Amino acid sequence: MLHIDQSRAFARARDMRPTGIDRVERHLAQALASTSSVTGLVRSGGRVWHGPVDELFEVVDSADVLDLAALATPWRDATRRRRETALRQRFGRGGRLADGFERGATYFAAGHNLPTYREMAVLREASVRLAILVHDIIPLTHPKLSRTAPAARFQERMTGVARHADVILHLSDVGREKWRTAFGPPPPGQMHDVLKLGPTGAPPLTRAPSERPEFLALSTIEPRKGHDLLLDLWEQFPEPPRLHLVGRRGWHDAAFFRRLDAAVASGAVIEHPDLDDAGVRALMARCRALLFPSVAEGYGLPVAEALTANLPVIASDLPELREIHGERVRYVTVSDREAWMLAISPFLCDRLVAGGGAPDLPSWDEVALQVRAIM
To answer: What does pTM read for this prediction?
Structure first.
């Protein structure tokens, strides 16, 4: 039996808009549940609940549950407490980490909300196989682009994966080689493979770019995503086009956010922190290109979604993006501001510069079958 961990979705229930990893975890869990016999699990507060994948997502997505204990313990996350109450109401008290796994079962995590090193050892001692999808190891390869405490926690979890996992899935051959560089040759019996993901957006759309040039950047606003470069470029335009930043503010220095606030006040930059999927697609239809100046990526889900929607993409020249998306993308050296200006220039005059073509990506049911075959 395959047990898929939905703890990341549960832990991030208070966040209004999902990140790329959130979307992958949900799509893959639902596809696995629809194509084969799997069960879901949620880890929270030292307890584990097992249940049908869709029913666990119902709890994750549920409205407020009356929980007087949450009101009496304000130091705890109230949203999480309410959902723990919903889990108890639906699935009982929950159990210890290794409870609910039959001998020889497989634990599968498609997100980075992972058990600790010690918890992984406990699962192995209970004869549970561990399969982990590693989206990237950016906190290890680019520590200056990550906050200190989360990076240390990430290091501990990934060390546990390297030591205890039976199967490690990567999103590209480049990612697999970076893992080998960081952790060395795998221990005997550990299998590594590349999982080709599908797009999480809707089918191609009919583009109708506005008369005034508009561009789209789609990601959490944090240092590695290159928003500082975009602000540098927009400050150089005599008559700046409109730039839509879709994504919530993450961590950054105060000086950057002051610059961003000034750009928003000028009207050249528009922030959309909580835009839903329909709103994103409406912007994709209006904008002339997706700008993706990221410093480091594991997959680049916004690139796949833009290409699927027939939106041209200008992106940093990263090996992961080249491997996954090929020549459908216009690549620019991440730090070369002049090259970025040259890449954007044709889109200022031409409303309908052709996109790079739809990517050859599998459906999520096909991704689920890949996972099953690898297991």
So the answer is: 0.90
